Each structure stands twice: as structure tokens, then as C-alpha cells.
Amino acid sequence: MIVLHRAYIPVEDTQEIPGVRCTTALRTMIDLAGEQRTDTTLLRQAVREALARGLVRRDQLEREDLPPLLRREFRVLASAHA
User: How many structural domains is the chain composed of?
Assistant: First the structure.
């Protein structure tokens, strides 16, 4: 299913993947966590894979303005790998 959203997105929250402008992995996770409709298991998997693939850095996930759900999932992963 494709869901189209319209919003102003700062250029630093976008990237181009061979000819297609899209949101960064971090911005996508922030948006999904903010909607609070994404299963926490999927969100945790997204965080884990984004970190492993180098799509986000730990310091980015430590920012203060993350939605509570995303912050919680990052802390769960961080404590498991400490």
C-alpha cells in the first residue's frame, strides 16, 4: 500500500536515490514513530538495520527531539548492545 503525505520537509531530511527524491532513513523513522501506528517490533528492526547499514548514526538517534516511541526503541537496542 502506498500512502501519500504532503508536508514541508527540510532539504537536510531528504536524499536522492538514483533519480528519486525521498526522505532519509532517520526522517522516515521519526515520521513513523510520530504516527504511533507502526508496530514497535518493526520500528526496532528499522532502527537496528539503519544502524547496521550506516543509514543513521547513534549520535543522530541521541537527539532530544525524537518522538518518545523512537527514543524508547533506540534505548532498548542501545542497552542490549552495551
Answer: 1
In percent, how much of the chain has pLDDT > 90?
Answer: 21
Q: Which domain holds residue 66?
A: 39-82
Residue 42 to residues 9, 32, 45: CA-CA distances in angstroms? 24, 10, 5
Domain presence at residue 69: yes
**pTM for the predicted model, two decimal places:** 0.77
Helical spans, DSSP H, in the chain:
25-35, 40-52, 58-61, 68-80
Instruction: Report the C-alpha gap between 32 and 80 in whole angstroms.
Output: 23
d(CA 38, CA 52): 20
